[in-house]
Amino acid sequence: MKYLYFLITLFSLSGFSQTIGIQSFATGFSSIVEIVNAGDDRLFVVQQTGVIKILNANQVTNPSAFLNISALISTGGERGLLGLAFHPNYATNGYFYVNYTNTAGNTVIARYSVNTSNPNLANTASATILLTISQPFANHNGGTLRFGPDGYLYIGMGDGGGQDDPGNRAQNKDLLLGKILRIDVDNGAPYAIPPTNPYAAADGADEIWATGMRNPWKFSFDTVDGNLWIGDVGQFNVEEINKVPVGDGGYNFGWRCYEGNDAHITEGCEPQNTMTFPFVTYSSADGSGNCSITGGYVYRGSAYPNFVGKYFFADYCSDKIGMVADNGTISYSGVLTGGSFTTFGVNAANDLFVGSQGNGVIYKVVDTSLGVDDVSKNTFSVYPNPASGSFSIHSENARFPLQLTVFDISGKKLLEKTIGSGNENINISGFSTGLYLVNTKDDMGMQSVSRLVIQ
Predict the structure, then answer these.
(1) What is the chain's mean pLDDT, rounded?
(2) Can you say how many angstroms the Cα of residue 90 is from the centroid of all Cα atoms in its chain?
(3) How many helices (H) does the chain have, and how many strands (E)?
(4) Which of 19, 52, 294, 332 could form a disulfide with 369 if both were Cys (CB 3.0 to 4.6 A apart)?
């Protein structure tokens, strides 16, 4: 019983002290920079070295790469294969798009097709280059590609690197650096300009949708309201999260005039009231260990109701995941295993994943507060506890039948069945050693949660 008390106490203090946790989902990757789904049950894992691997729903990775363009790219630092997006009609046209730095260090946006006879392989001979953008420095390449709810392809471009954006490229409307670009890949050769782009009929580069970005490493669209969320990496003091409606664009997010909300180099800048300031910021100069935001997603899954509608992000250096509420309040996890989180991803069911460059593991983001009830209020209890092989349910009031569900500590449902009496044994012979949650619900709707140790 001392062993059980120790485990329950430890679990209560550590596992439930924060609601944000992670559970290892797949291992064996290298330099993870992107996790994308193609509308089915597979995850496509982008490695900075130029390789895209397929991770199946059974957590097994295909031995052969989906795409390998390592010979085309420059790697190291912030260069490499950086982005992947599947066409909204991928199931019928087989098109997908990649963002990489070529051997000269310049950004390339290219379209590929899937192999017509094997959906787990790309057609490496199908490459069509859409854009090549000169990069003056090796860093701040951006990298994210996303299709918006308007069907256009959005491209995140950093300011080209160098401290303080020498040349003020992010504010220069004639340059594609330091911008969010938007192009129409379904028309034109190799693309067309959406007619509502802010400079489509005015002075400035037609591809620009928004200006004033430093390094929008990750951005995503909320699948419910269509808002665009951008994690823009700061320079010394401020990491920022921008939230804007898609619309026609024309946003100026402020860099280098402002770092977050703080004035930075304002000489020659447009008026402050013409700029769009962050939805929320956090400090990278407060001793917390923060240094670089990894933008994520608004959670729209069904497994964790407490997460729904909240935006998730991570910091590369502090190894924490943050959760932003509608009012801009940020809640953080504790320091998490693996660390150096470089990307988030979602599957077709909107489960949320995060990739660690520190150990090559993809984790599932989970709500560790699932099923936490006061044990003293339980109507039912489990015995023996600890258990091995099987357990039973005890009730002082013997209100059977009841619905029984067993979860692991990440919230994954492992067993569900109807229990007719307290004499019925529940088989757990295939369960690993550890701590579990047993939920019971009787015919009156009374629910109870007990902690079960399996040894």
Answers:
(1) 90
(2) 21
(3) 2, 34
(4) 19
